[in-house]
Design a protein that fits this description.
- The chain is built from three helices and no strands.
- Helix 1 packs antiparallel against helix 2.
- It is elongated and about 80 Å long.
Length: about 80
């Protein structure tokens, strides 16, 4: 009689994602916090085939954040040297 219980974890094949979308988002956030933009790109690249909508939402959120930071920097640069 053959035992039908698995001997261990399933083997990883080329189509098996190593990181799921949740893990990719955690990596994305940690990389963003650390200023590691190569890590941000890598996390989105791995996430995109698995959950394209989620990857797009993160990318759009990043774009909005960068636009806000750019506006703040411009506003601050415009007030430097001005009397207070």
């Amino acid at each position: 009689m053959t035992d039908s219980t698995p001997a261990g974890p399933a083997p990883v094949t080329p189509s098996t994602p190593i990181f799921d979308a949740d893990t990719c988002e955690e990596i994305f956030l940690a990389a963003l916090d650390a200023g590691d933009f190569q890590g941000v790109v890598a996390a989105l690249t791995v996430m995109a085939p698995q959950d394209p909508h989620r990857a797009e939402m993160l990318l759009n959120t990043l774009r909005v954040g960068l636009a806000i930071a750019d506006e703040r920097q411009r506003a601050t640069a415009g007030t430097e040297g001005a009397p207070t």
